[in-house]
Amino acid sequence: MINPEEVYFFESDVHELEEFILFCVAVAGKNASTQSRLLHKLLYEYMHVDFCKDHGWMITCLLDLPDPRLYGGPVEKDSPFERLRFLEREGLLGQFIRHSKLGQYNKIERSYRELIKSNICLKTCSVEELESIHGIGMKTSRFFLLRTRPNLRLAVLDTHILKYMRNEMGLENIPKATPSNPKQYARLEKIFCDHCDSLGKTVDDLDLEIWTKYSQLARGEKN
After folding, report:
1. Among 11, 77, 81, 219, whose CB has the most other CB atoms within 10 angstroms?
2. At what angle do helices 14-27 and 32-40 cross, to 10 degrees?
3. pLDDT at residue 89, rounded to an integer
4. Are residues 3 and 106 in the same domain?
5. Final residue belonging to a domain, choices 105, 134, 150
6. Half-sphere exposure of 198 (CA within 13 A, CB side)
7. What is the pTM of this model?
């Protein structure tokens, strides 16, 4: 299960990267801990997996559906993408995503379908390759890359970073929401990355510091 407080995958295998990109898509605008738990249910708790000596790993029973049914089909490597491919072959992908309660069902279903049908290499892919997938924008693509490859000059311009740029860096005309204009995003991204350089910190280190600080403040305000 993805731990939202420790989302660094610099030495991860393909299975972990697949689960993380699925999480990145699902978490946009949602509570990270909740989405992590719901994604884990979709991938691992709704499908009972047994080992068959003739066919390898097999998903033999799809659990917790309103109308449970039995299925048998080889799952080549039992990876997150391969599990979703199995559901797609059985015509169950949309049903399972909705049953998972992840929300944003049309976006997530289309995004997951495009991901599992693509030949994208999650160890080497670029921002542009990620953003060619429906549901993956500038913020999501950078979130994935920043957490899977060290020392990148990419900024996840979420509300925490933008608030930091207004309050801590004293900058004016910083939007409250992530810019949708690529040129504006690139301009603010460069300002933030240059600021990290001036502090002698990597972007991912300062990003984590800011996220931790503002998350703790937000929890304090709720209490």
Report:
1. 81
2. 130
3. 83
4. yes
5. 150
6. 7
7. 0.84
Residue 97 is which amino acid?
Answer: I
Q: What is the pLDDT of residue 157?
A: 95
- Between CA 69 and CA 67 the distance in angstroms is 6
User: Quick one: which H or E segment has residue 87?
Assistant: helix 80-89
> 29-48 burial, b for 16+ CB within 10 Å, e for fewer?
eeebeebbbbbbbbbeebbe
Domain enclosing residue 69, as ranges:
1-150
Name the phi and psi angles at 2, rounded to 5. -70, 130
CATH number at residue 192: 1.10.1670.10
Summarised one tens digit per residue, pLDDT across range 125-175 is 999 999 999 999 999 999 999 999 988 999 999 999 999 999 999 999 999
Strands lying side by side in the sheet with 69-70: 47-52, 56-62, 69-70
Q: For residues 107 and 199, state if they share a domain.
A: no
Give the span between the Cα atoms of 19 and 117, in whole angstroms: 15
Q: What are the start-end ranges of the E strands in 13-119?
A: 47-52, 56-62, 69-70
163's tokens: 């608030």
40 has a pLDDT exceeding 80 = yes
Domain co-membership, 79 together with 183: no
Q: What is the rounded distance in angstroms from the CA atom of residue 74 to the CA atom of residue 50?
A: 10
- Residues 8, 150: Cα–Cα separation, whole Å: 9
Residues 77 and 156 in one domain: no
Tell me the C-alpha distance between 109 and 87, whole Å: 11
Place of tokens 């990267």: 17
Looking at 94, 125, 150, the residue that finishes a domain is: 150
